[in-house]
Amino acid sequence: MRSRIDAMKLLRWVGLFSMATLFINAAAHAAEAAATTPCPEGLPTATRCLNGRDEAGAFYWIAVPAAWNGVLVLHAHGGPELGEPRADRTAKDLQRWAVMVRAGYAWAGSTYRQGGVEVRAAGEDTERLRGIFTNAVGKPKLTILHGQSWGASVAAKAAEAYPASFDGVLLTSGVLGGGTRSYDFRLDLRVVYQALCGNHPLPTEAQYPLWQGLPPGAKLTHAELAHRVDDCTGLRSNPAQRSAEQQRKLDTLLAVVRIPERSLIRHLNWATWHFQDIVFKRLSGGNPFSNIGAVYAGSDDDAALNAKVRRYRADPEATARFAADSDPTGHIAIPVLTVHATDDPVAFVELDSTFRDTMAAAGNAAHLVQTFTDEREHSYLADPEYAALVQALLVWVADGIKPTPQDLAERCKALVPGFGPGCRFAPDYRPAALAQRVTPRMP
Fold it and tell me: What is the tens place of the pLDDT at every residue in 216-275?
């Protein structure tokens, strides 16, 4: 009997010791998270920087200018990257978006707790960072949520989920059609590429439905895939050195899928490894992608091409799960300002028309202003453009003065002396419907 009591005491002491250890570790982690650290290169002099790793495992960086104006720009990064989070990712984001700190705003960005195509979780990590900033630095007067590229979908979903956390939303170069619409053209790329080239997968490799991206455990590398693209199309060779057949296949692929040559390999990479992540890590092997009813056009023999491409029907349950995680609903009742380059090679500018329709369907069209620039870039536009966008958004938030695209163009020009050249707003541009860019398919 006594040995049983002693054992129970021992277990109780072990439990108490374990709990104490957890509290000590948590306290040590919190102290580490609040510690000031040297800023990455390129930040204004006297900027205060903090970095750390939150309780969910996400790395983050915070930068506060010496003369902070009380505004926080909370950054949701694009990509997404696959694999484990890396602290240097957010340090690079801070360097890229140093214009925000130069303009007097504090900046905070998270790596997210995990890599991969998981929108809601990334939104949760971004919201958690807002709380970390408040505890470490202080409560901002205003908080602007900035989403870039795929991070624009993260920001849109976070604004829906946490309506009281943000005062305004800035979405730049956004993938704003939701996962169930934004990636249709990448399935098109896979099936048209395979019909033309037949080497992804090779005939000697295990065959699989192309919507899977790549089977689990496959050993294909990015370098090997690029080599296969070169074999088929001569993409990375001098055009004069391509065979007539290579040039024909390249021209056909680009015309049918309507992507620029300079982003072909990147899109094929995403249609391989990102699809693999979506299907096997997010959807338990289910297929959210369909090309049933898609009629491809732009080749020298469309009938033959359409007869040859593989056809796939999406699984309704997988599609519903993917939509719930990644599709914006438009339920954002605070000011939302967007910018998109008209010749964005990664996220089609036509995605903005889909987002406009989504906001309108939710009754929030009045909360959205869309702007466009005459540029060919995706990852970063120009410093004075971003400075103008945040400035205009803050005026809208604070004073209720809704900006127009022409206002942004004029505001940008006025900021050139302080932020350098680069104003290329196109006030009269309106994007076409996504169906004008991506081959329609059955619902």
Answer: 999 999 999 999 999 999 999 999 999 999 999 999 999 999 999 999 999 999 999 999
CATH number at residue 107: 3.40.50.1820
Residues 107 and 197 in one domain: no
- 152 class by beta-carbon count within 10 Å (0-12 exposed, 13-18 middle, 19+ buried): buried
The pTM of this model reads 0.91
User: Within this chain, do residues 169 and 56 fall inside the same structural domain, yes or no?
Assistant: yes
What pLDDT, in 10s, does the model give residues 187-213? Answer: 999 999 999 999 999 999 999 999 999
- Do both 345 and 411 map to the same domain? yes
Predicted local confidence at residue 431, as pLDDT: 98
Could you tell me the two tokens for 353?
């028309």
Longest distance between any two alpha carbons in the chain, whole Å: 90
Full residue range of the structural domain in which residue 88 is found: 36-177+327-436
Give domain status of residue 140, yes or no.
yes
